[in-house]
Write the C-alpha cells for this entry.
Amino acid sequence: MVATLWHIPGDADDPLPDTPMPPTITPLPLHLSAPFTIAHGTSTRRTNALVQIGGGWGEGALPPYYPHRLDDIAGYVRALPDDLLTGDAALHLEHALDRLPDGPEPARAAVDMALHDRWARQLGHPLYRLWGLDPADSPLSSYTLAIPASEDALREQLAALRGFPILKLKLGTGSLETDEAIVRIARDTTSARLCVDANGAWSVDHAARIIPRLAACEVLFVEQPIPDEATADWKHLRQQLPADAPPLIADESVQTSTDVLRLHDAVDGVNVKLAKAGGLREARRMIGLARTLELRVMIGCMIESSLALTAAAHLAPLADYADLDAFLLIDDDPFVGATMQQGRLTLPERPGLGVQKKPSE
Amino acid sequence: MVATLWHIPGDADDPLPDTPMPPTITPLPLHLSAPFTIAHGTSTRRTNALVQIGGGWGEGALPPYYPHRLDDIAGYVRALPDDLLTGDAALHLEHALDRLPDGPEPARAAVDMALHDRWARQLGHPLYRLWGLDPADSPLSSYTLAIPASEDALREQLAALRGFPILKLKLGTGSLETDEAIVRIARDTTSARLCVDANGAWSVDHAARIIPRLAACEVLFVEQPIPDEATADWKHLRQQLPADAPPLIADESVQTSTDVLRLHDAVDGVNVKLAKAGGLREARRMIGLARTLELRVMIGCMIESSLALTAAAHLAPLADYADLDAFLLIDDDPFVGATMQQGRLTLPERPGLGVQKKPSE
C-alpha cells in the first residue's frame, strides 16, 4: 500500500468521499534548502510519511535520529480496524482515537492528524474553532538557525533574517567556546530575541558552566541542555544554576503526558511536538497538564511539510512559545496551509486542518 | 441584577442575540419529590443559580454543605469583564475561559456552562459532537437512594426502582450495623448492581472494617468512605483493605486537577462534578489527567436541574461510571434536556447543550 511514485492521492478540496476508501500511505520527500546541522547530525533531505484516511490528511515525521521508518508507518496504518474508516466513525473522533492501537509515535501522529482533519471538515469548521481557540492568541514563532559551518556563514544568515523577531540558535558543536561564540555573535549582530537549543549535547557540568554565560546574552530560554535520560540530572543542573537563569525547556526528555508528570518539578517548560506525542489529542492533553503544573509550553516541530506544521499551528494559541518554522527550511513543500510572516503565524480559515495541495507550477 | 421573582429570561429556542446583553442571574428553586438524606444532612429543597450569558445557559449548584450562596454567584457574574460578552468572544471559548477570574466554583461552573452553550450553539452542533464524542459510549447511570427513614421505606423504594440497572446507596447513618443492613437488604431484594457512597462518614478504622463486608454484597465501588482532608488517610485505608476490595472513588476529596494529581496513588478513581471543578473545561482536563494516571472516572452531579445535568451528560461518554440522576429526584425541573430511561442516558441533538424550557402546562 506504500506508493512508490511521488504522488499525493486526492486533495483537501475534494469533497469527503461517500464510501469508505482504504487509507493510503505515501512517501513525502522533503529537500532542505540548505544542509541542516544540529547536535544529532546533518540532514539535506528527509522522507516523511503522508497518510490519507477518508478525506483527512496526516503526516508522520521520520527524523533519522528516531528509530521509525516509512515501512513502520505503512504497517501500522494497514493494520487499523476497518470500522475506524466507515459510517459515523468520522464524527466520533474521541472514540476512534481511543481505539488506535499502540505503535510508532509518528504513525499514530499521522493517523490522529488525518482523523482530526476528516472530523473537522465533516463539522464544517477549522480545527482551531472546534477547539474554541482564537488564532490571534498565537505567540510569535521563532526561526531556527542550524549549527553554522563558519562564523561568516552565521553572520550571513543573521543578516538574511533581519526582521525576524525571535531566533533559535542550535548549539552543541562539541566545544563550549564555539557554542558561546555563536550566541555572542548573534547577540552583537541582531536585535531579535534569542533562544538556544543544545539538543542534549552538554553534560550537566558543561551546561551549568555555559548557561550563566548565555544568560548574559539575554537568552529567552535554554532547550534540552542535557541528554534526555535521567530526571535526576535535570534537578542536579537546576541546583547548580543561579535563580535568575533562563528557563529550562525539555524537548527530547518529554514525549507524552507521563513525561510531563515525571519531569514537572525538574524543568520550567516542555516542548510539545505532534510526532513525539503521537498526535493532536495527546499534545492537547500535555498542554492541559502542563498548565495544571504551571509549566511553560512550547509547540515545536520536526522537519515537516506545511501539513504537519499547520496541524501544530492549530495548537499555537495554547502555547507560550511557538517554533513552527520548518516549512521555511524546505524547498519542495507540496502543501500550503498556515503561513508565517516575520514570525507571525496565520491559520487557514478553511474547514479541517485547512491544508491544500500547492497548485502545480 | 438578581431577579427576585421566579422567571427564566429568554429561551434556548430564541436566536442568539445580535447585540450583547448583560448577563442575568436568577434563582433556580428546586423542590425534591421526597426529603433527601445523606451523611451531610436532609434537604427538601435547594436554590441553585441560573446564569444566562448572550444566549447561553448555565447553572451553579448551591448545596447547603458548601459555603457559597446565590449572592456570591451574582457578585461574581456582575464583575465579569464586558468583553467576555461581545463580538467574537463567543467563538473564542478557550480565551474567554482563560480570562475567567478566580471565584466560587459554582459561579465559575455556571459561567463556563453558559459560555460552552453559547459557543456550541454558534457553531451549530451539539456540544458532545464538538468534543468528538459518541453518546452511545455513555455508561449506564446509577440511581441514588438517600439514607432511608426505615427498613420498610427502603424496601418500598427498592420495589419502586425495579428495572434500574445500577443503584447507589447513600450510607453514613452513624451506625456501621445500619449501613451494612441497608446494603444487605438491597442485595437480597434487587438484582441491580450496587454501589455505595458514605459521603465521608466513616473513620479509617470503621471503613476498613465495613468495606470487606460490603464487598461480600458485590458492591461495584465505594465512594468517599472517609472524610476529605488527608491524602495519608486514603493510603492508610488502602493498606488495611484486602487486594480484592471494591475500588475506592474519591468525591469530596477531589475538586480539581490538582487534587487528582495529589491523590492519584491513594485512590482508584475520582468523581468529577461540574460544580466542584468549576465547569466543563476543568472537568475535561480532570478526566484526561485521570486517564493518564490510569484512574477510573465517574461523572457525578449535585441536586441540579436538567440544565446542569445535561451539561454533565455531555461528558458521560468519557466516563466509566455516570451518576446523573438528580433531575429524577426533583418535582419542578423547569428544563428538559438529557433524559434517562432505566439508567440509559439520551442526549438532545440540538446545538449547544440542547436544553429547552419545559413547555408551560
Observations:
- Confidence is low (pLDDT under 50) at residues 1-10 of chain B.
- The longest strand of chain B covers residues 24-38.
- The radius of gyration of chain B is 20 Å.
